[in-house]
Write a structure and sequence with these properties.
heterodimer; A: mainly alpha; Arc Repressor Mutant, subunit A; B: Phage tail protein beta-alpha-beta fold; 13-stranded mixed beta sheet; three-stranded mixed beta sheet
Chain lengths: 169, 318
């Protein structure tokens, strides 16, 4: 990091970290987690290597922070749901901590990919893709027509592909 | 959005429609050829097709129950966002529905209730009033919804229902549908099957999703069923609804089974060594403090409770 950038960064930290911590604390309801995410916000700026101009700094920082809060809650709820599901498994299904972590990462990835999908479209799409049910079986289970199932599946494929396109850009 | 990006997204939309057609139950040879022709007609089409294929890579690594996990996690977050005040509001939607029904048409009531959804967190209990003054109690880690006045969907968890018998109520679980004509009943769906106990009232009828005919459950009977088959009938056991008063009451229950029950009320993972299955538990435990229950077990049985983290507890032999 250049000296110039370092100076800008310290200034950005001094001026903004106070309100940013408050902003995050209100959303997370916890000052420790807020402090962690303040650090992560600045870390993102260091990784991007771009210091925002002073007039946009507040806007820029809050945008990054909001994204981090969303990620934080997504991880939280997926971990909770996964932990709950482990209770129903028998000892034979036990796997290593690394495998648990990997499953959670995959679930987070899928949840992100399917974020912009309606509840019913997500259900239909996952029943076809993951459980391999026929359109007819999905239609029966969800109490909708076969043509609606096909429409939902197409919507699922589309949303997935668009999210993927955005990630790879 | 730039024009080229807009075009990319339009192509992806077309690719998705083609793929959904080919994924259908009986795609024809002609549809297959038409799709190939579309892909060949323009390199950009082929690119959109590949993008749609590649986007699904993470889905291939997904565990089979991902759909349920994601749905449940979203229910948790909805609840989390609503907070405690929001939860009371969830109750109000049900109760105000009841008020509306008194002096307006049933249709508006149904409309009001469409897609009402409620979730309880691990260790939480929620009491609600439904239309006709029917009472509903929702146990720990449960997702329910009410798409219509007379239809209650239990996706996972456990409920207790008192139907005053004026209107039948259907309860749908992943295994099938229970038609409840009146009385007190509990329904539980936690693993792969559904369990129904009818404590009193009128006979209920049960139809598994893949069954060809319904069967009848009489008062004081309990049954376990999956989409296609049923276990034999047993007698209802009042201990099984001790959760209604915040307790876990058991008599000679194998320790492994007891721990599985307890873990439903406790956040995190609770595991027990299989060799402890010969031990049994009798007693009434308060679900308010599951740490205390673990201590009580350790004090009275030859076991060791190892707390790896707050959310990961192993129980093994001394």
């Amino acid at each position: 990091m250049s000296n110039d950038m370092q100076a800008h960064l310290s200034q950005l930290y001094e001026v903004h970290q106070g309100w940013l911590a408050g902003f995050l604390k209100r959303r997370l309801n916890c000052s420790h987690q807020a402090a962690d995410l303040v650090q992560e916000t600045y870390l993102k700026i260091i990784i991007n290597g771009k210091i925002p101009p002073a007039v946009y700094a507040r806007q820029y920082l809050s945008k990054i922070a909001k994204g981090l809060v969303i990620d934080h809650y997504r991880r939280w709820r997926i971990e909770q749901a996964y932990l709950e599901s482990l209770q129903h498994l028998t000892a034979a299904h036990q796997c290593s901590p690394e495998q648990h972590l990997q499953i959670i990462e995959t679930l987070i990835e899928i949840d992100t990919l399917l974020h912009n999908l309606s509840v019913r479209a997500r259900e239909a799409f996952l029943l076809r893709k993951l459980e391999g049910l026929s359109y007819q079986a999905i239609a029966k289970q969800m109490d909708i027509s076969v043509s609606s199932v096909e429409k939902y599946v197409a919507k699922g494929l589309q949303v997935c592909a668009v999210a993927y396109l955005e990630q790879t850009l | 959005m730039s024009a080229s990006r807009k075009a990319d997204i339009e192509r992806i939309q077309q690719a998705a429609v083609w793929m959904a057609r080919l994924w259908s139950d009986q795609p024809t040879e002609r549809e297959q050829q038409a799709c190939n022709a579309w892909r060949k007609s323009n390199p950009a089409n082929e690119k959109a097709w590949q993008c749609t294929v590649n986007a699904q890579a993470s889905l291939a690594r997904a565990p089979a129950n991902s759909g349920h996990l994601i749905a449940r996690s979203r229910a948790l977050s909805r609840r989390n966002l609503l907070g405690l005040a929001g939860f009371a509001a969830g109750g109000l939607i049900f109760s105000s529905g009841y008020l509306l029904r008194k002096d307006s048409s049933p249709d508006s009531y149904t409309e009001l209730l469409t897609h009402v959804e409620l979730s309880t967190a691990t260790g939480e209990l929620k009491k609600l009033s439904l239309s006709n003054n029917n009472q509903l109690v929702v146990n720990t880690a449960t997702d329910i919804s009410m798409p219509a006045t007379n239809l209650l969907v239990l996706s996972i968890g456990e409920i207790w229902l008192e139907n005053n018998g004026r209107h039948p109520l259907q309860i749908k679980t992943p295994s099938g549908t229970i038609t409840h004509h009146g009385g007190q009943l509990s329904v539980r769906h936690t693993g792969t099957d559904s369990q129904v106990s009818l404590f009193n009232g009128k006979p209920a009828s049960i139809m598994g999703r893949k069954m060809h005919s319904a069967f009848t459950l009489n008062p004081t009977q309990k049954i376990n069923f999956t989409a296609s088959k049923t276990d034999s009938l047993t007698a209802t056991n009042l201990n099984e609804i001790s959760w209604l008063s915040g307790k876990l009451v058991v008599q000679d229950m194998p320790l492994t089974e007891f721990v599985a029950e307890l873990s439903r009320y406790r956040k995190g993972v609770l595991r027990i060594a299989p060799e402890l299955s010969h031990l049994a538990v009798t007693g009434a435990f308060s679900l308010k403090n599951t740490d205390l229950i673990l201590q009580q077990l350790q004090a009275s049985l030859p076991i060791k409770v190892k707390q790896l983290t707050r959310y990961w507890v192993n129980i093994c032999a001394v």
